[in-house]
Automatic annotation (TrEMBL), chain A:
<keyword id="KW-1003">Cell membrane</keyword>
<comment type="function">
    <text>Part of the binding-protein-dependent transport system for phosphate; probably responsible for the translocation of the substrate across the membrane.</text>
</comment>
<keyword id="KW-0812">Transmembrane</keyword>
<feature type="transmembrane region" description="Helical">
    <location>
        <begin position="131"/>
        <end position="160"/>
    </location>
</feature>
<feature type="transmembrane region" description="Helical">
    <location>
        <begin position="321"/>
        <end position="339"/>
    </location>
</feature>
<feature type="transmembrane region" description="Helical">
    <location>
        <begin position="47"/>
        <end position="69"/>
    </location>
</feature>
<feature type="transmembrane region" description="Helical">
    <location>
        <begin position="172"/>
        <end position="196"/>
    </location>
</feature>
<dbReference type="InterPro" id="IPR005672">
    <property type="entry name" value="Phosphate_PstA"/>
</dbReference>
<dbReference type="InterPro" id="IPR035906">
    <property type="entry name" value="MetI-like_sf"/>
</dbReference>
<feature type="transmembrane region" description="Helical">
    <location>
        <begin position="254"/>
        <end position="275"/>
    </location>
</feature>
<comment type="similarity">
    <text>Belongs to the binding-protein-dependent transport system permease family. CysTW subfamily.</text>
</comment>
<keyword id="KW-1133">Transmembrane helix</keyword>
<dbReference type="InterPro" id="IPR000515">
    <property type="entry name" value="MetI-like"/>
</dbReference>
<keyword id="KW-0813">Transport</keyword>
<dbReference type="InterPro" id="IPR051408">
    <property type="entry name" value="Phosphate_transprt_permease"/>
</dbReference>
<protein>
    <recommendedName>
        <fullName>Phosphate transport system permease protein PstA</fullName>
    </recommendedName>
</protein>
<feature type="transmembrane region" description="Helical">
    <location>
        <begin position="81"/>
        <end position="103"/>
    </location>
</feature>
């Protein structure tokens, strides 16, 4: 430990020498300046290289100064702080660039007509055409998947929380967890195998995609509903039993009523999770250029598959793919916001 | 205890014999007895409430004792249910039966997924080499020779992605839980969750059209300076190699790993952290001594979940990787690797007959791999839940 050339009062302080609070910031600023200067001289100054060199210089400078003034333990602490912060900032890069690219490139073709026209009669370099048919398809398929998975998910969660004891409940819990890990393409293959066996090899429909999505969605619904049901205080159930209300009515009128906000939120988030699934829809629902309202028969266009197929076409298609991606993200964000709003609106009034 | 119903009614409570009844009396007796000095002076009505309370506790019999609603399906309130017991008991049985049956349905669905995949893959599994040779993209290989490189490519891309994602996620999770101000931490957590909801096709678009050009100079530099190591040799633009695909996969699984490890780090017993701080530990030493040991198994299982996701991810790989079917460790060369999921999505639209069965057979391999990874992850989580002293 370097002995400080300290003023007389330092004999009374309990802490060792500390760097001033502004030291890290000064180190960042200094490192940035040096990095920029060096890289301009070598002629390689891009944002990436300057940032990388700045981080490196800052870590070295701050750690060594701190080691000299504050000792090795604080130096390690400062190094760890630097590393954690750099990791965090590094992770922000893809997030920000992703959102920025989708918005800026998506805005090229995104418009009212893009949302309200389909792709009938659009070919070559035509910039007209839109995603109306894909929006309809996405909503129909997702709605059907929701109608399948929500009742199953809700009842299973009720079983697990209110009735489930013993090996069966343990097994279900375990396999629900395992089911959350099914790759989306495998779910698609399952729906394909099931329906082509039952309906013939050429059968394609929105229902097929909905079944694939339901396989992916049900475990998510079970998980979130289960969590919400467990949050309901046991005193409420016991109070209801004490009043002579039978168990099933207690579940319907007390437990579900108390947790409805959380359940709806969980379902919305599950929808947001599957609405962007591409792979299973690619191999089950396929792609067409016009609107198909019939879930039970024929191919359907969906937004993710539309974005992918347009990207494959290249040219104007890439712009269309970005616009479709923007539409998709907007729908997902909207669902998230609605979920938050609902959870706020439905929240039971607590407190006296 | 006055609130307990008359003894004749009490005997109608099923399973509510004398022994649990006694336990109730003590359980209910404690709250009534403790505040005797303080509360009884405030108001007599308070005391009345107490007794009402304890009657609510005593009436359901054993349910009140083990604070969980026990497995009894019967309506547990004796006084009122005397009238409606018959009908409501039937309704109760039906309700329990339906919800239980739905639970079993989940198991059936999972079995059906495996069953139908095996059923449709069977023709490929039993086909003769001559039949398989008719499929043009099989190049005369047997099924095993065809699946091998695909499994290798899947594992390679997923493990590379995991290697990139875990240190970053650890950093983000620590930043959110221990470095950022509390208010900011909440907002950041929400942003991370939102990132997890972004569709994979958007990641694919972003990776192919934005990230690949950005990675190009980095890969070129890597190949130039570290090219003597075979791993990094032979980069050719554009960046459509397995490392680029793994980078996008890493970006996709960072939110998942971060979300889980953040939850685990938040659960670190505050007393442990405060004890470390009180002993004079720096923030990093606190993290190393109190937070990381507590969260290690949580971090492991979070990584396994991320691995499971990366293994099954289709679109990002499909849109970025230029495919090849080799056991190759050249991370920067294009046309060396392909993952199972991306291969299925690429070939499926044009496939028919036996080639569909071959693709489904590869899907079965993917299913088995992810199932194993997830089961291990769940097993680690379950073990942690048993041993963690947090509550």
């Amino acid at each position: 430990m370097p002995v400080a050339t300290a003023p007389a009062s330092s004999a009374l302080t309990l802490t060792g020498n500390r760097l001033p609070r502004w030291a890290p910031w000064a180190s960042v600023a200094g490192s940035a300046l040096v990095a920029w200067g060096v890289l301009v001289l070598t002629g390689e100054h891009t944002a990436t290289t300057v940032a990388a060199l700045t981080a490196l210089l800052h870590a070295v400078a701050l750690t060594s100064v701190s080691r000299y003034v504050e000792g090795p333990r604080r130096a390690t602490d400062r190094l760890a702080t630097t590393l954690v912060t750099v990791a965090f900032l590094l992770a922000l890069v893809p997030l920000v660039s992703l959102l920025w690219t989708v918005v800026s490139r998506g805005a090229v073709l995104f418009s009212g007509t893009f949302l309200t026209t389909d792709m009938v009669g659009v070919f070559g370099d035509m910039t007209s055409g839109g995603v109306a048919h894909a929006i309809v398809g996405t909503l129909m398929v997702t709605l059907t998947a929701t109608l399948i998975s929500v009742p199953i998910g809700l009842l299973t969660a009720i079983y697990l929380v209110e009735y489930g004891r013993g090996p069966l409940a343990k097994g279900i819990t375990f396999f629900v967890d395992v089911m959350t890990g099914i790759p989306s393409i495998v779910a698609g293959l399952f729906a394909f195998a099931l329906f082509t066996l039952l309906m013939g090899p050429a059968y394609r429909s929105g229902l097929m995609g909905a079944v694939a999505l339901a396989v992916l969605m049900t475990p998510v619904v079970i998980r979130s509903v289960e969590e919400m049901l467990r949050l309901v205080p046991n005193e409420l159930r016991e109070a209801s039993y004490a009043l002579g209300v039978p168990k099933w009515l207690t579940i319907l009128k007390v437990v579900l009523r108390t947790s409805v906000a959380g359940i709806v939120t969980g379902v919305m988030l599950a929808i947001a999770r599957v609405i962007g699934e591409t792979a299973p829809l690619l191999i089950t629902v396929g792609m067409i250029t016009r609107t198909n309202w019939d879930v039970f028969e024929g191919r359907m266009a969906t937004l993710p598959v539309f974005a992918y197929s347009q990207y494959q076409q290249g040219g104007v298609g890439v712009d269309r793919a970005w616009a479709a991606a923007l539409t998709l993200i907007l729908i997902v964000m909207l669902l998230n916001l609605v979920a938050r709003g609902i959870s706020r609106a439905f929240r039971p009034k607590t407190g006296r | 205890m006055t609130p307990v119903p008359t003894s004749s009614q009490d005997s109608t409570v099923p399973g509510g014999g004398q022994a649990p009844h006694g336990a109730v009396t003590t359980a209910a007796g404690t709250p009534a007895g403790v505040p005797a000095g303080g509360r009884r002076t405030t108001a007599a009505t308070m005391d009345e409430d107490m007794h009402d309370d304890s009657s609510a506790w005593a009436a359901p019999g054993p349910t009140a004792v083990d604070h969980r609603v026990s497995g009894h399906a019967q309506p547990p309130a004796p006084a009122v249910s005397l009238r409606a017991s018959g009908a409501s008991r039937v309704a109760d049985t039906i309700f329990k039966g339906v919800s239980g049956a739905t639970g079993v349905l989940i198991l059936v669905v999972l079995a059906a997924v495996a069953g139908f995949l095996v059923l449709r893959a069977w023709p490929a599994l039993t086909a003769s080499p001559d039949e398989l040779a008719k499929i043009s993209w099989m190049n005369g290989q047997s099924l095993l020779e065809y699946v091998g490189p695909l499994v290798f490519g899947t594992l390679l891309s997923a493990i590379l992605a995991l290697g990139l994602a875990v240190p970053l996620s650890l950093g983000i999770a620590l930043f959110i839980t221990h470095y950022a101000p509390r208010r900011a931490a909440q907002a950041l957590g929400y942003v991370i969750d939102l990132l997890a909801a972004i569709p994979s096709v958007v990641y694919g678009l972003w990776g192919a059209l934005w990230l690949a050009p950005v990675l190009d100079p980095i890969f070129r530099w890597l190949s130039d300076t570290l090219g003597f190591i075979p791993l990094f040799a032979g980069y050719t633009a554009p960046a459509r190699n397995v490392l680029a695909a793994a980078t996008v996969l890493a970006v996709m699984i960072i939110p998942i790993i971060t979300a889980v490890s953040r939850e685990v780090f938040f659960q670190t017993p505050v007393l442990h952290e405060e004890a470390a701080l009180a002993l004079g530990a720096t923030r990093w030493e606190t993290i190393r001594m109190a937070v990381l040991p507590f969260g290690r198994s949580g971090l492991v299982s979070a990584s396994m979940l991320g691995l499971g996701r990366a293994l099954g991810e289709t679109m990002a790989v499909l849109m970025i990787l230029s495919p090849g079917y080799l056991f190759s460790f050249f991370l920067l060369k294009p046309g060396q690797h392909q993952s199972i999921a991306a291969n299925i999505a690429a070939k499926f639209p044009e496939a028919s007959g036996l080639s569909v069965s071959v693709l489904i057979a590869t899907g079965l391999a993917l299913f088995v791999i992810t199932l194993a990874v997830n089961m291990v992850a769940r097993w680690i989580i379950a073990r942690r839940a048993e041993f963690s002293g947090a509550n």
